[in-house]
Automatic annotation (TrEMBL):
Protein name in the entry: Holliday junction branch migration complex subunit RuvA
Coiled coil: none
High-level lineage: Bacteria, Bacillati, Actinomycetota, Actinomycetes, Micrococcales
GO molecular function: ATP binding; four-way junction DNA binding; four-way junction helicase activity
Main location: cytoplasm
Alphabetical list of Gene3D superfamilies matching this protein: 5' to 3' exonuclease, C-terminal subdomain, DNA helicase RuvA subunit, C-terminal domain, Nucleic acid-binding proteins
Organism expressing this protein natively: Intrasporangium oryzae NRRL B-24470
Length: 200
């Protein structure tokens, strides 16, 4: 098991990072917030979880051990795979996931693409007492939006479509959060705001 990686960021996508470790570039799937927190050419440390399938080895990376713990724990529920677990962390912080599970907040859980009411109820039933509080280091601050106009819009739209919404739904949400971009909000903050709009 590859529990963590330390190396130089070779490439940062919207929801993935290529980390150079010992001369090898490793593709690590992340949440948009984690991908936005690193910069090419800079060092990065990621807690990682290796998902082994018959035809693939896939690495998932996290800014904190707490995110990794939540990612791995929610997959113990039948029907929840790594993609859905990552989508859950893209929409909610680990603290928000714990609050939703502990309080039986079905509405919060169904904001995640791919989680319906029955799935949310199953998550609450099976994980209410499993996700204990873990001391986690705070994540790195999100960078502010680049000054070249609408770059943030393309990035956030791509993330929303990747999480399961249509382009039209994504664009409607982007129009609503545009004022925050004008105020200098970061891409990850804009993504969270757009997710909140879509969850209304």
């Amino acid at each position: 098991m590859i529990a963590s990686l330390s190396g130089t960021v070779l490439k940062a996508g919207l929801d993935s990072v290529v980390l150079g470790v010992g001369g090898v570039g490793l593709l690590v799937h992340t949440t948009p917030a984690t991908a936005a927190s690193v910069r090419p050419g800079q060092p990065a440390d990621l807690a990682t979880s290796l998902v082994v399938r018959e035809d693939s080895l896939t690495l998932y990376g996290f800014a904190t051990d707490d995110e990794k713990h939540v990612f791995e724990t929610v997959q113990t529920v039948s029907g929840v795979g790594p993609r859905l677990a990552l989508a859950l962390l893209a929409v909610h912080s680990p603290e928000a996931v714990r609050a939703a599970l502990g309080g039986g907040d079905i509405a919060a859980l169904t904001k995640v693409p791919g989680i319906g009411r029955k799935g949310a109820e199953r998550l609450v039933l099976e994980l209410r007492d499993k996700l204990g509080v873990l001391p986690g280091a705070p994540g790195q601050p999100a960078p502010s939006v680049e000054s070249d106009g609408e770059v943030w819009r393309e990035q956030v739209r791509e993330a929303l479509v990747g999480l399961g919404w249509t382009v039209r739904q994504a664009d409607d949400a982007l129009d609503k959060v545009a004022p925050k971009a004008a105020e200098g909000a970061g891409v990850s903050a804009l993504l969270r705001a757009a997710l909140q709009e879509l969850g209304r």
